[in-house]
Amino acid sequence: MSKRDNPRLKQREEEKRMKREKYFAAKEAREKKAREAEKNAKAGKPGREGAKKTSRLDKEYAPREARSFRGYNDERSGEERREAFANENPNMIIGRNPVMEAVKSGRTIEKILMQKDGEGSIKKIASLARERGLQIQYVDRVALDRVTGSRSHQGIAAYVSAYSYCELSDILQKAKDRGEDPFVILADGLEDPHNLGAIMRTADAVGAHGIVIPSRRAVGLTETVAKASAGAIEYIPVAKVANMTAAIDELKEQGLWIGACDMDGTEYYEAKLTGPIGLVVGGEGQGVSRLVREHCDFILSIPMVGKISSLNASNAAAILMYETFRQRAGK
Fold first, then answer.
1. Pick from 127, 132, 79: which is nearest to 110 by CA?
2. Does residue 52 sit within a domain?
3. What end-to-end distance do the CA atoms of the chain give, in Å?
4. What is the pLDDT of residues 281-315, one digit of tens each?
5. Is residue 81 part of a domain?
6. What is the pLDDT of residue 50?
7. Which of 129, 217, 261, 277 would bridge with 134, disulfide CB 3.0–4.6 Å?
8. DSSP of 279-320, one letter per residue?
9. Which H or E run contains 148?
């Protein structure tokens, strides 16, 4: 018996044909119903609205959308691809300033990639790296573009050991070793790595002893943070805590006064910011959380007379840090 005469095959073909007819009939009815609903909506008549249900026939016979292959048809923006690369390569630092500070600070560096025809500060970095006995590999710009995900590498990149976090007690010990009153920055829920990097840069400039960040719903020490800090990440210890309010209580037990940057507080230049102190800066969207605000000793406000009602988190932090620096220096 040939396949054409097989009754089972004929039965299966007939069942498929009936299912196809049923599917297209149901599809036509749905489209007609949708057209009527649209017509009633334009006429101002009430109609029934509901979520479209997907039947088994839809799944079996409806045409499927073509899937995009990320390797060749990546619809992500350039910034999204760069952020993804940073998350996938946390042990690579990129750019002249970050690599220079990593070499100067004595951080463990596995290998430095340098552009063959690099000029300017690249030669200085190479000289310092040779003095430390670090491995240098000279490569073409195309190779650097590839390994850095086409980021702005400035002709240099380095593979380093992962950034490590410290304990809260280490920050206080750093102040004790310097013979200074503790000066701590607490970042409550910062999600933008550029903001955290900028805060680290200012914190190093004003002589702060460390930064405290929460372990959840906040950015960590990524390569983007390192680049935004312009090398300050090598000198500012960062403590990651599970509970920010508990960390504030611990700092208060050690004699620190904690002030939060928020609205409806004392104007920052009228507040006393000398002695052991901690400054809390809120996240980009929500600001300082309610619980953290309640645990602070006082609230600091930055007066504004323009049309914009708030400042960028790193800008607000810089204003408070430099006012603290001015008062601590007795100027």
1. 132
2. no
3. 104
4. 988 778 888 899 888 999 998 888 877 777 888 99
5. no
6. 45
7. 129
8. EEEEBTTTBS-HHHHHHSSEEEE----SS-----HHHHHHHH
9. none
CB atoms within 10 A of CB 83: 17
Q: Quote the CA–CA distance of 303 and 323 in Å, as a whole number.
A: 14
Indicate if 105 and 187 belong to the same structural domain.
Answer: no
For residues 199 and 251, state if they share a domain.
Answer: yes
Domain encompassing residue 217: 168-328
Q: Is the pLDDT of residue 153 over 60?
A: yes
Total domains in the chain come to 2
For residue 139, the cross-strand partners are 115
Least Cα distance to 117 among 172, 79, 156, 89 occurs for 156
Residue 64 lies in a domain: no
Record the tokens describing residue 139, joined without a space.
């490569």
Residue 331: what pLDDT? 64
Asked whether the predicted pLDDT for residue 191 surpasses 60, the reply is yes
Domain end residue (candidates: 129, 160, 191): 160
